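FAQ

Q: What does a record look like?
A: Structure on top, sequence underneath. For example:
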């Protein structure tokens, strides 16, 4: 009977799984207007960091509260990153059919796309944890992504996997569609939160010390 005790590891795992499934559905729902993807991602990370620390609470209430709070900064943050990545992808496609020196023009756009993806991997977790301007969040996200490159690669792989699979094998992507709908994005946010916790910890402590020193 200990297996089904509320304090057992099994029940705690089941509770976390249920929370992640609810968060995944809420995240996808709030992404539907497209422009709100950034705010939805920040809200998802707010809840994911809470779960990764083992803090109790109602994750859906936390998600929707964070979603409303991050709309003002989340929308321009997302649109700037989407614009940079979209322009880079478009130019890569335009110049990919060229020959000789024309192919070299692809390189700066490939670098721009890579930097946009790296920055996005940190921007929304940062937005969920720290109070900063859109420009400040972008700058910090870029610097941190380059400064912690091994973790950045792991975060990026988790973030781009569904879209890479969509591009490589549409049939397989659709075959496992229930994973994207019910679990993947919240689970990857949880794993990313675990990866980024040590990265953010010194800055979170510095922010706390600064608040305590403020009269």
């Amino acid at each position: 009977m200990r297996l089904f005790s509320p304090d057992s590891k099994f029940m705690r795992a089941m509770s976390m799984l249920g929370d992640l499934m609810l968060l995944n559905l809420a995240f996808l729902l709030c992404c539907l207007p497209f422009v709100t993807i950034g705010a939805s991602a920040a809200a998802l990370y707010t809840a994911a960091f809470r779960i990764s620390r083992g803090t109790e609470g109602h994750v859906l209430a936390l998600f929707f509260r964070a979603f409303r709070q991050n709309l003002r900064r989340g929308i321009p943050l997302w649109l700037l990153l989407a614009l940079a990545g979209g322009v880079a992808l478009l130019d890569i496609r335009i110049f990919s059919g060229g020959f000789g020196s024309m192919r070299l023009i692809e390189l700066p756009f490939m670098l721009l796309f890579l930097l946009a993806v790296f920055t996005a991997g940190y921007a929304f977790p940062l937005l969920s944890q720290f109070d900063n301007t859109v420009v400040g969040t972008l700058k910090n996200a870029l610097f941190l992504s380059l400064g912690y490159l091994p973790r950045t690669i792991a975060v990026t792989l988790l973030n781009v996997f569904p879209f890479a699979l969509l591009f490589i094998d549409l049939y397989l992507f659709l075959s496992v569609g229930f994973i994207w709908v019910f679990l993947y994005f919240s689970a990857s946010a949880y794993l990313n939160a675990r990866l980024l916790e040590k990265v953010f910890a010194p800055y979170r402590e510095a922010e706390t010390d600064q608040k305590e020193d403020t009269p």
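Q: Is there anything notable about this one?
A: DSSP finds nine helices and no strands in the chain.
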